[in-house]
Sequence to fold (328 residues):
Amino acid sequence: MSTESNIKQLSISPGQKVKQIWEHGDWLYRLAILVACLLVIVLVFAIGYELWQNSALSRQAFGLRFIYTSEWDPAITNTFGALPYIWGTFVTALIALIVAIPLSLGTAIFISELAPGWVRQPIGFLVELLAAVPSVVFGLWGLFAYIPVFIRPLSEFLNNSFGFLPLFDGPVFGPSRLAAGLLLAIMVFPTITAVSRDVFQAIPNAQREASLALGATRWEMISQVLVPYGTSGLLGAIILGLGRALGETIAVTMVIGNNLDLSTSLLHPGYTMASIIANEFTEATSNLYLHALIEVGLILFVITLIVNSVARLLIWRVSGRTRTDARA
Fold:
């Protein structure tokens, strides 16, 4: 038996020995990856558990009324309702996406498909540099330059021209939901653009060459081939931008006006869930007040999880449909 085993060992090539060594070490790699994934899951549940535990007083006092009522009076009645903050968060995020998505996709298409080589690198670098600007710098710029130079004239124009609509009802203050939404559009623009550019650059050149060979124009190749092919990646880029828009704090706090306003007008000051926490967390003088602010954070946490889960389902469906069409 020892002679046969020695013969087998001698017959193993050096490449096979290396392969056996790597296969022997695979379990360590797999274990490390598994532990890392489990830590992420544990971290998410730990955050949710802490928010749930530390908002107990508010949940017991107000129940579901906390979500759909608007009274916020910590000084006299000690009553709290989060509806204005939920409304402000969704309005500003929606404005940001409406403005940022076409600009971001257009820029990504230009960088990856249309721009000459000597322009492509500088523009890509500037987009990535814009993503590295701290949010407090955006807030200062928005407060002292963006609002006086751009937002106030735009708001006055909208109010004078379309003031009969509830969306543009006056008066014009400057700091407003519109200001916060447009500033968020600038902040999410580099995120969506950078990811979308990488999505377009990852599409095989065979897709471009095949569509052009069939007689498609450059625009038809981009709109009918590249965009559908990269839909799942583009959805992921948009969701990344939406996540930042929902959770952005300091820049929004500096330009939104911080007023408890539930009106539909975009020109009025308002609040978001992140800005109310940033403004009043250190001023919470009672346990119920503190727990109410933490419950606002819990609602924001749940909304973010729901949005990302729905987005992931959409990406899976789009990816599955794309693979099915490709096989057909």
Q: What stands out?
A: The two ends are 56 Å apart (CA to CA). The CA atoms of residues 175 and 213 lie 53 Å apart. The mean pLDDT is 85. The chain has 14 helices and no strands.
